[in-house]
Design brief:
two-stranded antiparallel ribbon, about 325 residues, Rossmann fold, elongated, Helicase, Ruva Protein, domain 3
Length: about 325
């Protein structure tokens, strides 16, 4: 079977060939997309072509892989299921031999990704959506910091409810660390909804395609602040989202020492100055009594910037 020649029924054939060897593994979250029209949408959204190097996480039967290869892109596909790996070696043998497809057996959250990636396009298992996005975000941030190749686009097929939280679709009601931290580096666009009948076996939830486009919010609004400080502060505050900001900030975030130039003592001192410096407050009066979801993304950046100021001012 050629891996780069379009043919009617190729999607169902690829899925059936894998299912003939073993039924979908629920523990791995395997629900295989069988709608050919839907499978072509991520290619159009990402605009990948022969100049692209695409990461695909969880290729499974190799259906999305097929359309990625048709675009001319180089593909690195990471698959944890050894039976799926054997299947992919058979059905995409020509692309592997030519070097267009590189298969890696392992956990995409743990294995090292190629440094020259340009895009991530995949239908990942839903249970790894959050850590996968965190790894994508960290990869992009590290690329910025080191001046290496940055991603041009990320297209993911996610659980619909998760996608809404990622995009903070419903404002305050869906605002949380997932959406706030992602918004530091990405514009998130909710795209096509994908009903359960487009998969085999059918998942119990609705799905949605999401496009993430690189966007440096800190540069746009002119706030130069340590990315790792913002992420740790946001995650810490939302760990008890019904608590007021004053109470959350007075508690030291876990592993704050992993943020450059911070430790427990510095955090306590900076927060004390932040809460007592009423005359130079960067947020509206009474923000200390807000809950974490009441703050906009830009306000989190302002708080982090102010904390960095006090940290530098009193620890020189």
């Amino acid at each position: 079977m050629s891996s780069v020649e379009p043919s009617d029924g190729i999607v169902r054939e690829l899925v059936d060939l894998l299912l003939d060897r073993r039924w979908a593994d629920k523990e791995l979250g395997q629900h295989f997309l069988v709608d050919e029209k839907v499978l072509q949408v991520p290619i159009k959204l990402s605009k990948v072509d022969s100049n692209s190097h695409v990461l695909e996480v969880g290729p499974g039967p190799g259906t999305l892989t097929h359309f990625l290869l048709l675009s001319g892109a180089r593909v690195t596909a990471i698959e944890i299921d050894n039976i799926a790996i054997e299947h992919l070696h058979r059905v995409h043998a020509e692309a592997i031999e030519s070097g267009q497809l590189n298969l890696i057996e392992g956990d995409a959250l743990n294995v090292q990704w190629p440094q020259d990636l340009t895009d991530v396009v995949c239908n990942p298992p839903y249970q790894i959506s959050s850590p996968l996005i965190a790894k994508i975000d960290n990869w992009q941030e590290n690329a910025k910091r080191q001046g290496t190749n940055q991603l041009k686009s990320v297209v993911l097929l996610l659980q619909d409810e998760f996608a809404s939280r990622l995009a903070m679709e419903f404002g305050l009601a869906s605002r949380g660390p997932l959406g706030i931290n992602t918004a530091l580096n990405w514009l998130v666009s909710l795209e096509m909804k994908v009903p359960a009948h487009c998969f085999t076996p059918h998942p119990e939830v609705q799905s949605r395609l999401v496009l993430m486009t690189p966007h440096d919010l800190r540069t746009e609004i002119g706030i130069d602040v340590e990315y790792r400080l913002v992420k740790r502060m946001v995650s810490h505050a939302f760990a008890q989202r019904r608590k007021k900001m004053r109470n959350r900030l007075k508690r030291v975030p876990r592993k704050i020492e992993r943020v450059p130039n911070w430790n427990r003592e510095r955090w306590v001192e900076a927060v004390n100055h932040l809460l007592s410096d009423v005359e130079n407050a960067v947020l509206e009066d009474g923000w200390e009594d807000f809950r974490p979801e009441d703050l906009e993304v830009e306000e989190w950046l302002l708080l982090a910037q102010r904390l960095e100021y006090f940290n530098q001012q009193f620890n020189e």
